[in-house]
Amino acid sequence: MAAPRLALCVCVLMLAVFTLTEGMRGTGPRRCCFKFNEKEVPRGRVIGYVKTSQRCPNPAILLKTVAGQSLLCVRPSARWVKNLISYLDTKSIPGAGTNL
């Protein structure tokens, strides 16, 4: 009689520990950049941008181009990237949540 109860308690305890550790780990950022495009991208080729999560190891900007096949990783500290972001922000529709 004591053995089934002990086994049940151990199973419940293991399940609780597993649930807590998985919940603490959380989900990570969707996209982070590890390689950067250093070459300037013309304004006319870019239609939007997104900043990467603060949880990424490298701060970055993801540029969406007219081709739209993939997002380009660029450094937010580059002067041409700052100018491009200013241009896109003034071009975006007021009240929109994102410009991508």
Question: Quick gist of this model?
Answer:
With 100 residues, the protein is α+β, with helices and mostly antiparallel strands. It has two helices and three strands, in the order αβββα.
Describe the structure in your own words.
The protein is an alpha+beta fold. The protein has a domain at 43-91: OB fold (Dihydrolipoamide Acetyltransferase, E2P) (Beta Barrel), CATH 2.40.50.40. The protein contains 2 helices and 3 strands, in the order αβββα. The chain has helices at 2-25, 79-91, and strands at residues 46-51, 61-65, 71-74. It has a 3-stranded antiparallel sheet with strand order 1-2-3, covered by helices on one side. The longest helix is centred in the first third of the chain and has 24 residues, at 2-25. It starts with a helix and ends in a 9-residue tail after the last helix.
Write the layout of secondary structure elements.
Layout: H1 2-25, E1 46-51, E2 61-65, E3 71-74, H2 79-91
Antiparallel strand pairs: 1-2, 2-3
**Could you estimate the helical fraction of the residues in percent?**
25-40%
Major beta sheet, strand line-up: 1-2-3
Number of H- or I-type helical stretches: 2
- The geometry reads as rod-shaped
The level-1 CATH class of one domain:
Mainly Beta
How far is the N terminus from the C terminus?
A: 62 Å
| Unreliably modeled segments | none
Oligomer status: single chain
What does the largest sheet look like? 3 strands, antiparallel
Query: What is the residue-averaged pLDDT?
Result: 80
* C-alpha-based Rg, rounded: 23 Å
Strand content: 15-25%
Structural class: alpha+beta
* SSE succession: HEEEH
Task: Tell me the CATH topology of one domain.
Answer: OB fold (Dihydrolipoamide Acetyltransferase, E2P)
CATH architecture classification name of one domain: Beta Barrel
Strands, total number = 3
